[in-house]
């Protein structure tokens, strides 16, 4: 039977490991579940940051080319 998970070993500072243990007890969840949730949240934060940077680039580019709306953008792209 093939496993769909992979066991890894990580080292954490003692204080962080204690916090993880306490969170696990308080929430009634496994440390693995908490780390999975943290990882998912981290990926969402990174994705949001990347989208923000992309939108900022788009706004700056539009400003530099004096593009005020989507209609002007489409005209510019057709050139």
Walkthrough of the structure:
The protein has helices at 14-27, 31-64, 70-78. It has 79 residues and is mainly alpha-helical. The chain has one domain (14-78). The longest helix is centred in the middle third of the chain and has 34 residues, at 31-64. The radius of gyration is 22 Å and the shape is elongated.
Outline of the structure:
Helices cover 72% and strands 0% of the residues. The protein is mostly helical.
Weakly predicted, low-confidence segments: none
Anisotropy-based shape: elongated
Question: Which class do the helix and strand fractions yield?
Answer: mainly alpha
The end-to-end span amounts to 58 Å
The average pLDDT is: 93
β-strand amount:
under 5%
Helix share bin: over 70%
Cα radius of gyration in angstroms: 22 Å
What's the number of extended β-strand segments? 0
Helix count, per DSSP? Answer: 3
H and E string: HHH
Largest sheet: none
What descriptors fit this protein?
3 helices, elongated
